[in-house]
């Protein structure tokens, strides 16, 4: 990936392209799916003077990529110690080494403290890039050691253009998806091309249209079964759960809206409005997120959400 292939965040792009002496430790902050990792790889191509294809494929010996552990969801201290050891070794092929840490806010306190000195005093031939959508969860001592670049959401038109030109999405569908994506091309690609997510979404919308009765329990368990199967195959997709929660909020924002000019799901605009406040729904979703962070099953959280907010007298 090179800079001219990336859309959005033009000021950051111009800065990274023009800078000759970039800080050795950087923090790319912003919501998921807006291109932070693409910018990091483009910067790696520039700094390493390496082949873009090898860096994109994450198989260059001087390009190290760290993801949270599948089982725990965190960066282990063992992986961070490995990073520290590698920083102080010379590059194999390129002019420098680049270390990329995805979801840096998911470092355990022990992991974060372990790399503090390395972030403060990296070698001259190494660059460490932290990616995070939750800067507030990072230790202040981590943030203070980084040059922070804050990425902005993409414009709807930018997302739509990519969907149509590069992913063969029908322009009308692309317009709807770009609006629902809320500034994230990553979200848009999940909405438009991820069949695994689509299965979960279809089951969720079955509940949303009829939240009372056995369909709630049946579909919640079917969604959970899909999640469990992915975990079993070590293909966990936490972004799916986040987007399902977003779809719930979009659905009820539509229901609470007095205007049909710009709805997330206009195809359902003929449904009756429930007698609740959108603030109550947002609060319930926040409680749901807290429960999910405590590793409570998504199906349990989903059932509790609807039972708490959708009693039979809720629709008037």
Describe the structure in brief.
The chain is α/β, with parallel strands linked by helices. The protein is built from 15 helices and five strands.
Explain what this protein looks like in three dimensions.
The protein has 15 helices and five strands. The chain has 316 residues and is of the alpha/beta class. It folds into two domains: 148 residues, 3-Layer(aba) Sandwich (Rossmann fold); 121 residues. A five-stranded parallel sheet has the order 2-3-4-1-5, sandwiched between helices. Helix 4 links the parallel strand 2 and strand 3. Helix 11 runs antiparallel to helix 12 and helix 11 packs parallel to helix 13. The protein is globular and about 65 Å long.
SSE order and pairing:
Layout: H1 10-18, E1 25-29, H2 36-48, H3 52-56, E2 63-66, H4 77-87, E3 97-101, H5 109-114, H6 116-120, E4 126-132, H7 140-143, E5 147-150, H8 156-167, H9 171-181, H10 185-193, H11 195-209, H12 214-232, H13 238-256, H14 278-293, H15 298-309
Parallel strand pairs: 1-4, 1-5, 2-3, 3-4
Helix pairs in contact: 8-9, 9-10, 11-12, 11-13, 12-15, 13-14, 14-15
Tell me the distance between the termini: 53 Å
Helix amount, in percent?
Answer: 40-55%
Secondary-structure element order, N to C:
HEHHEHEHHEHEHHHHHHHH
The CATH fourth-level homologous superfamily of the largest domain: P-loop containing nucleotide triphosphate hydrolases
Unreliable runs = none
Query: CATH top level of the largest domain?
Result: Alpha Beta
Range of strand content: 5-15%
**CA radius of gyration:** 22 Å
CATH architecture of the largest domain: 3-Layer(aba) Sandwich
- How many β-strand runs? 5
Mean pLDDT, to the nearest integer, reads 89
Instruction: Tell me the domain tally.
Output: 2
Tally of alpha and pi helices: 15
By CATH, the topology of the largest domain is: Rossmann fold
The biggest beta sheet reads: 5 strands, parallel
- Outline, from the CA principal axes? globular
Give me the side-by-side strand order of the main sheet. Answer: 2-3-4-1-5
Helix/strand/pairing category: alpha/beta
């Amino acid at each position: 990936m090179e800079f001219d292939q990336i859309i959005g965040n033009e000021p950051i792009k111009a800065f990274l392209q023009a800078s000759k002496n970039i800080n050795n430790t950087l923090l790319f902050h912003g919501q998921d799916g807006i291109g932070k990792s693409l910018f990091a790889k483009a910067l790696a191509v520039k700094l390493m003077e390496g082949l873009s294809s090898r860096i994109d494929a994450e198989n260059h010996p001087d390009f190290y990529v760290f993801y949270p552990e599948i089982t725990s969801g965190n960066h282990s201290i063992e992986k961070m110690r490995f990073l520290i050891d590698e920083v102080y070794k010379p590059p194999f092929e390129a002019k420098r080494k680049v270390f990329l840490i995805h979801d840096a806010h998911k470092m355990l306190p022990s992991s974060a403290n372990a790399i503090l000195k390395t972030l403060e005093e990296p070698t001259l031939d190494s660059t460490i890039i932290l990616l995070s959508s939750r800067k507030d969860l990072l230790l202040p001592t981590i943030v203070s050691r980084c040059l922070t670049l804050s990425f902005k959401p993409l414009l709807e038109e930018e997302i739509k253009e990519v969907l149509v030109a590069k992913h063969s999405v029908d322009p009308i569908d692309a317009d709807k998806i770009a609006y629902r994506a809320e500034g994230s091309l990553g979200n848009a690609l999940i909405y438009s091309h991820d069949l695994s997510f689509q299965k979960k979404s279809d089951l969720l919308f079955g509940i949303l249209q009829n939240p009372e009765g056995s369909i709630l329990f049946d579909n919640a368990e079917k969604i959970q079964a899909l999640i469990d199967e992915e975990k079993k195959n070590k293909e966990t997709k936490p972004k799916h759960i986040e987007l399902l929660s977003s779809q719930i909020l979009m659905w009820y924002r539509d229901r609470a809206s007095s205007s049909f000019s710009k709805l997330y799901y206009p195809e359902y605009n003929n449904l009756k409005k429930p007698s609740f406040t959108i603030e109550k729904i947002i609060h319930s979703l926040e409680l749901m997120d807290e429960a999910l962070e405590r590793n409570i099953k998504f199906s349990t959280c989903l059932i509790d959400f609807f039972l708490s907010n959708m009693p039979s007298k809720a629709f008037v």
